[in-house]
Amino acid sequence: MLRCMAVVPRKSRQLHLWWSQISSLLLGRTEVEPTPLRVHKLPPRTPALRQVPPAPSYALRECWEKLRLTYFPDQPELELYSIRWSDRNQRSCLASCNLEKRRITVAKVLDHPSCHSYLEPLIYHEMCHAALGPIKKVNGRRVIHGRKFKLLERRHPGIAELDRWIKLGGWFNAVKQHRRRKTRTLRLAH
User: Fold this and answer.
1) pTM to 2 decimals?
2) CA dihedral in degrees (159, 160, 163, 168; nearest 10)?
3) Cβ neighbours for 113, distance < 8 A, ≥ 6 positions apart
4) Do 127 and 71 reside in the same domain of the chain?
5) What angle do CA 111, 113, 116 make, to 5 degrees?
6) Average of pLDDT values for 90-107?
7) Residue 111 CA neighbour count, 13 Å, CB half
8) Per the domain annotation, does 8 fall within a domain?
9) Does residue 168 fall inside a structural domain?
């Protein structure tokens, strides 16, 4: 029995030569012309023109502890909260406070040196939510940023600057710059 192992060529001309070789072997002919073997080399991968160094990550936990000791020393239950960067690309939410899971999530977009000055008041804002506890309903409506919350929030000197930054489009610009940086990094990687 004749055993033949061959690699099937991809191009039609090579396929024709391959079939002629197989048929010659099957018919018992010994004069079979070998098909020239072509080796395709991939072009060398060009290194990225410029590597963008990663910005130092802001220490969220240290900031949380500092704010808790400064503004809420009588509420040790705030130590139980975890704080982390968001895994998703946030467009409308800067940060969130989940009271059931005791977790604060901050938008990854803000982990850039140009936004670090706004992180402390933002974390304080979320800490106010955690300190006040569950959201109350008044006349069937949830009161998220009520009178008590606003009074508590005003204790931090950076809240006014954070509000001004958001109203002037700072958050929108941070999202746009984050997308540009991400696109540029992906482009340089390929």
Assistant:
1) 0.65
2) -140
3) 55, 56
4) yes
5) 65
6) 89
7) 19
8) yes
9) yes
